[in-house]
Amino acid sequence: MPVILAFSVFKAKIMQRNLSDNRTRLTSNSLVALVAFLFFLSSFGNSLQAQEVGKYHYGVRGGLGMSTLSGFKNNGLRLGVTAGVYGDYNLNDNNILTTELYYSMGGQQQEKWIEQGSEKVKTYNRYRFHYLNIPFIYQHYFADILGVEGGLNFRYCLNGNLKTRIGNEHWQTQDFSRSDYNAFDMGLILGVYTDHLIQHENFFVSLRAYFGFIDVVRNVGSNKNISVYIGVGYQLH
After folding, report:
1. Is pTM, for the whole model, over 0.85?
2. Which residues contact 73 (CB under 8 A, 6 or more apart)?
3. Where are the domains of the chain?
């Protein structure tokens, strides 16, 4: 089954990653367990959400996300926004194909202590990237109020920079050149969604996780995008 194959590839990819930060590893393992549980339910769910078969729909969506880069020590999360449009096609009563075009923010915050003379001071590194995303997603309703989704996301990095600060000094900004990072990124999207949390038939709410396959910053070791987004969408037609 496509769903089982997608999940198997996703799980194998996660197991190969050596995330140095234990919090990031724990979060990834928890997402694996959650997705496995949801796909198990989807195989046996009997209550399906009725959809308009063979219909096209489009709308807008946006939300907030937390992102980080795997492989860095002392890495933290960076808050960002997403905004864009989507279009979908109903294959049958409970299966939908959808594609989107949206903007998102990525990167991470990193803090560590260094020795400066006879004392230690804290340094701050903030990686910031801006992406244009085109995902292709399969959605499946397995209950009256809940559905699961999965697919591939293709991303183009518009630009990026690194902001650094040592102790209480002023922030310094270094804009990345095209040779400093990979402009193209792609990865796996997994999530859940519902259109029943808000009492309006055209609204829906989704929770997504993104796992990148390609290193972001070049020549610094493994550093792939990991993001979690919560979003709200509105169907215009």
Report:
1. no
2. 20, 21, 110, 112
3. 2-235
Lookup result for tokens 């795997």 = 70
The 10 Å Cβ neighbour count of residue 7 is: 19
Residue 3, judged by CB atoms within 10 A of its CB (0-12, 13-18, 19+), counts as middle
H helices present in the chain, as ranges: 2-16, 22-44
The Cα 149–Cα 98 span in angstroms is: 10
Cβ burial, residue 120 (10 Å; 0-12/13-18/19+): exposed
Question: What does the pLDDT read at residue 120?
Answer: 84
Q: Regarding beta strands 95-116 and 78-90, do their DSSP bridges make them parallel or antiparallel, or are they unpaired? A: antiparallel
Largest distance between two CA atoms of the chain: 71
Half-sphere exposure of 63 (CA within 13 A, CB side): 19
| DSSP state, residue 217 | B
Q: What is the DSSP letter of 171?
A: P
What type of residue is 114?
I
Average confidence (pLDDT) per 10 residues, the chain, 237 residues? 45 42 44 48 40 78 94 82 95 90 92 78 90 96 84 96 88 90 95 80 91 91 92 91
Q: How far is CA 102 from CA 131, 146, 170, in A?
A: 8, 23, 33
The third-level CATH classification (topology) of the domain covering 2-235 is Porin (2.40.160)
- Taking the C-alpha atoms of residue 2 and residue 7, their distance in angstroms, rounded to an integer, is 9
